[in-house]
Amino acid sequence: MPREITAFSNPLIKWARSLRDKRHRREEGRFLAEGLRILTEAREAGRVPEYLFFADDGHQLTQALIAATETAGGTAIATNADILSKLSGKDNPGAVIGVYREFATPLAALDRAAAPIWLVAERLRDPGNLGTILRTGDAVGAGGLILLDECVDPFSVEAVRASMGALFTVPVARASWEAFRDWLRAGPGQLVGLSLDTDQDYRAARYAAPTFLLTGNEAQGMPDHMAAECDLLVKIQMLGKADSLNAAVATAVMAYEVLGQQG
């Protein structure tokens, strides 16, 4: 039976709200996810929240989330829109907010034979880009997203929101460049880098599965030492005044080209 909390001063509300802060997320190993669609994607992927906050239990999907949370030993909490707004930081919060335990896939646990396309991001800084790349990964059936070196936190409120549930459906691994390089070279895999310093058009290149698409930092691009390790560097031609595409857009363009060739 769901509990009811309507006071801003409640310790559980204060604790859940603190998870919007990176330091508290890391200390607690927990993160927030918001919205019926995202939480339903999580439930269908086999992940349910430890705490589920909801303002209206009349929706069928909300009822399913309450049942799944309580069956798994979690706590469902009836509250109001003001409390949800405080938790989410938005004036128009979603109907449900969940507190989840952080999860990650170790690099060594990835099965490169599981998919013909893999996404790799280096020093990605923008949570919106990270979330969008995860959505692209889900759309093209990528085996996972590998985050290299100091990337933005995939469990930040902004990244989770931008992923629209793909955080729960696309495996995410984090590793140093050196660890990733050694793992990649221990088996099959073509490392393809998106670069401005090449004349190789991305549509003319040929991609071999499993293809690992490497996207560099939004502002600085890919470091020279990483570019030198790529099996192939390709360029998306720019016909206007802009010199490059947004990192997430470029990743999506590349991913669909690879998917088209391999299909």
Which structural traits does this protein have?
five-stranded mixed β-sheet; alpha/beta; six-stranded parallel β-sheet; Alpha/beta knot; single chain; 60s Ribosomal Protein L30, Chain: A; 2 domains; 263 residues
Plain-language structure description:
This protein has 263 residues and is of the alpha/beta class. The chain folds into 2 domains: 3-101, 60s Ribosomal Protein L30, Chain: A; 107-262, Alpha/beta knot, CATH 3.40.1280. The protein contains 10 helices and 11 strands. The protein has helices spanning 11-18, 22-28, 36-44, 60-71, 81-88, 127-140, 157-163, 177-184, 224-229, 247-262; strands at 3-4, 30-34, 51-54, 75-78, 96-101, 117-122, 145-148, 172-175, 190-194, 211-215, 232-234. The chain has a 6-stranded parallel beta sheet with strand order 8-7-6-10-9-11, with helices on both faces. Helix 1 (11-18) packs parallel to helix 5 and helix 6 (127-140) packs parallel to helix 10 (247-262). The termini are far apart.
User: Average pLDDT, to the nearest integer?
Assistant: 93
Number of domains: 2
Helix content: 25-40%
Rg over alpha carbons: 20 Å
- Low-pLDDT stretches are none
Distance between the termini: 49 Å
What gross morphology would you assign? Answer: elongated
Tell me about the largest β-sheet.
6 strands, parallel
CATH fold naming of the largest domain: Alpha/beta knot
